[in-house]
From TrEMBL:
Residues 34-352 form the TauD/TfdA-like domain. This is TfdA family taurine catabolism dioxygenase TauD. It comes from the Bacteria. One of its GO terms (biological process) is antibiotic biosynthetic process. InterPro entries: AlphaKG_dependent_hydroxylases, TauD-like_sf, TauD/TfdA-like.
């Protein structure tokens, strides 16, 4: 690690891992208990928040964080006014304690592409908190990308289209009548996402988020909504790439899995890449209406496979993948930095919280 500016607290030191400046790492210089850490976070709001605004992510490593309640005590120590309890995202998650959830229940071989949490909402989470309750044997990193750099580096023609038209999302969900929790193309059911089967409540939540609802079949649902594609940070006033194109586009997963194969060089990653390439080819031949998760420009024009690949290339150019260590706590500025998940082997349990 490379030493950086010293913190005002004598027992916490700051550094970077290798040449990367994402994330900034906080480590104890002497043994302390969890209460010492939460008190430090509470009393040094200005310091860690300035670091978070500058670097986009800070990692607490080597502290005695042993379970979900320890992690939740860190969330409380940040004094964020509204901690998350309601998740309108797509991945299946399990609630552990009031403000703490499993990060994702998707299978270990399934990659999660870079995204800012719930960027398709009008008001996405402000901060994200991750906790490595159990780091995996191999892989399983939560890679990060500075979305401010992505905005600067993206193809100007793509940027111009998004500035002019924005982004349109379409998601199709099975309903309570389907027992499967997720599939390759759809994730959790709409009743899991909304947290209710009460249709009046579903309509209310949808109106609050400008979701257009179309019901079909027995109890299946299509949700459509639009966003700008970029966001300006309310404090720093920086502008960032902020959309789910690299997650919802049918071509995105193919670009991702081949890059993962080049990184991991395993038979499993090759098998996943070949299978997903075949399935995506079938999807492409079937046409965009067959895609249960789809993204276009705001005027309905398709984002081409070539454009999607160029977006993926820019993300991987800036991507930082640091292996988890059990006990790590990562705080991400969700308006400046994206995250994902690389495939893994062995037991792995990453917990997550957020502030609205």
């Amino acid at each position: 690690m490379t030493q950086t500016t010293a913190t005002r607290s004598q027992w916490i030191r700051k550094s970077f891992i290798g040449e990367t400046k994402l994330p900034l790492v906080y480590e104890p210089s002497e043994e302390k208990d969890i209460l010492s850490l939460t008190k430090w976070i509470q009393k040094n709001q200005k310091e860690w928040r300035e670091d978070l605004e500058t670097y986009g992510a800070i990692l607490f490593r080597g502290f005695p964080v042993h379970e979900a309640t320890d992690f939740q005590s860190i969330l409380f120590a940040t004094e964020e006014k509204k901690l998350g309890e309601f998740y309108l995202g797509t991945s299946p998650r399990d609630q552990v304690v009031k403000h703490v959830f499993t990060a994702s229940e998707l299978p270990p071989h399934y990659p999660i592409m870079q995204h800012a949490e719930m960027s398709f909402l009008d008001n996405p989470p402000k901060l994200l908190f991750f906790y490595a309750e159990k780091a995996s044997e191999t892989g399983g990193e939560t890679p990060l990308t500075d979305l401010r750099e992505i905005y600067k580096d993206i193809n100007p023609e793509i940027k111009e289209k998004i500035e002019k038209h924005g982004i349109r999302y379409r998601r199709r969900y099975d309903g309570p009548s389907k027992k499967a929790r997720f599939s390759l193309w759809k994730t959790k059911r709409w009743d899991e996402m909304f947290g209710t089967t009460n249709l009046e409540e579903v309509e209310k939540i949808s109106n609050q988020n400008r979701f257009h609802l179309d019901w079909f079949g027995k109890d299946s649902l299509t949700i459509t909504n639009e966003q700008s594609g970029f966001r300006i940070h309310p404090q720093a006033k920086t502008i960032a790439w902020h959309n789910h194109s690299q997650t919802f586009h049918y071509q995105a997963a193919v670009s991702e899995v081949w890059k993962i194969f080049k990184k991991q060089k395993t038979i499993r990653s090759l098998s996943v890449a070949l299978l997903l390439t075949l399935l995506t080819t079938i999807k492409r031949i079937s046409g965009s209406e067959s895609h249960d998760v789809h993204v276009t420009y705001g005027n309905g024009d398709e984002i081409s496979a070539k454009e999607m690949k160029s977006i993926s290339d820019v993300f991987w150019k800036h991507l930082v993948a640091i292996p988890w260590q059990t006990g790590d706590v990562l705080i991400i500025d969700n308006l400046s930095v994206s995250h994902g998940r690389l495939p893994f082997t062995g037991p792995r349990r990453i917990l997550v919280g957020w502030s609205d």
